[in-house]
């Protein structure tokens, strides 16, 4: 009887082992774990530290609201000032005192990678990843800040291509390298907290060409809060009266 029980435990353990040997396998495991479970909305405010030549230039408060998979809004300073940016689909819309001041093409990688991907089919996620410039034929395992990680989009030692570093335990994204022409953008995502079927980073560092440009520290993080769709409509700008709508 003991031998039978032991055999069953060994079988269950073996079946639960993660067999990953490529970028698509990692994305599949991420999608299997969180699709249908990930929180639908996220609201928080953040302390934003802006740096130049590695020196702190100013500190601001931003108020952020996300509705996955595509809608993201940041209000700068006082939420009622009308200074904001709305990311929707493949564009970003900038507002100054409630008036549209600029529109830019923007694929908004981060909204997709940090939650939006779990609201698409696996095949759609693979297609989107490729369109964002990640070579899914490249993959390796590595260590980042003492943690074992999967790296999609790059082979070992390759530092000049788009890539995403993913914690092996919880499949959180901990590092991203993105290139626009010759400019290298690096994002570090730290201090993850577990919320409503998923996780959220709570401290983020951004570097451009190796120089620190911004540190973000999240506060008052709330998942699955009610957010009115109207705040994401760039054609009919709505002023916010508070951080979380």
Describe this structure in words.
Helix content is 17%, strand content 44%. With 245 residues, it is of the alpha+beta class. A 13-stranded antiparallel beta sheet has the order 6-5-4-3-2-1-15-14-11-10-9-8-7, with helices on one face. A two-stranded antiparallel ribbon has the order 12-13. The chain is globular, with a radius of gyration of 20 Å. It starts with a helix and ends in a 22-residue tail after the last strand. About 5% of the residues have low confidence.
Main sheet overview: 13 strands, antiparallel
Strand order of the largest sheet: 6-5-4-3-2-1-15-14-11-10-9-8-7
Helix content: 10-25%
Mean pLDDT: 91
Annotation, overall tally of beta strands:
15
Q: What is the tally of helical segments?
A: 4
- The helix/strand series, from N terminus to C terminus, equals HHEEEEEEHHEEEEEEEEE
Structural class: alpha+beta
Question: What kind of assembly state do the chains in view correspond to?
Answer: single chain
Principal-axis shape equals globular
Distance between the termini: 59 Å
CA radius of gyration: 20 Å
Low-confidence stretches: 5-16
Strand content: 35-45%
């Amino acid at each position: 009887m003991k031998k039978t029980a032991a055999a069953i435990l060994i079988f269950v353990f073996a079946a639960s082992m993660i067999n990953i040997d490529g970028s698509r396998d990692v994305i599949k495991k991420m999608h299997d774990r969180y699709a249908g479970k990930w929180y639908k909305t996220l609201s928080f405010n953040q302390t934003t530290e802006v740096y130049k030549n590695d020196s702190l230039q100013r500190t601001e408060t931003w108020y952020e609201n996300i509705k996955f998979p595509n809608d993201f809004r940041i209000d700068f300073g006082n939420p009622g000032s009308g200074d904001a940016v709305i990311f929707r689909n493949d564009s970003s819309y900038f507002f100054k005192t409630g008036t549209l001041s600029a529109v830019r093409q923007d694929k908004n990688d981060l909204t997709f990678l940090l939650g939006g991907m779990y609201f698409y089919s696996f095949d759609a996620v693979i297609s989107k990843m490729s369109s964002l410039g990640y070579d899914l034929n490249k993959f390796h395992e590595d260590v980042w800040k003492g943690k074992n990680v999967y790296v999609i989009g790059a082979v070992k030692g390759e530092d000049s291509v788009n890539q995403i570093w993913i914690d092996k335990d919880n499949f959180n994204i901990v590092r991203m390298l993105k290139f626009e022409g010759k400019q290298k953008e690096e994002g570090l995502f730290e201090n993850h907290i577990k919320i409503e079927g998923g996780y959220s980073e709570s401290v983020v560092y951004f570097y451009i060409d190796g120089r620190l440009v911004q540190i973000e520290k999240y506060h008052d993080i709330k998942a699955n809060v009610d957010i009115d769709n109207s705040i994401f409509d760039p054609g009919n700008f709505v002023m916010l009266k508070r951080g979380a709508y």
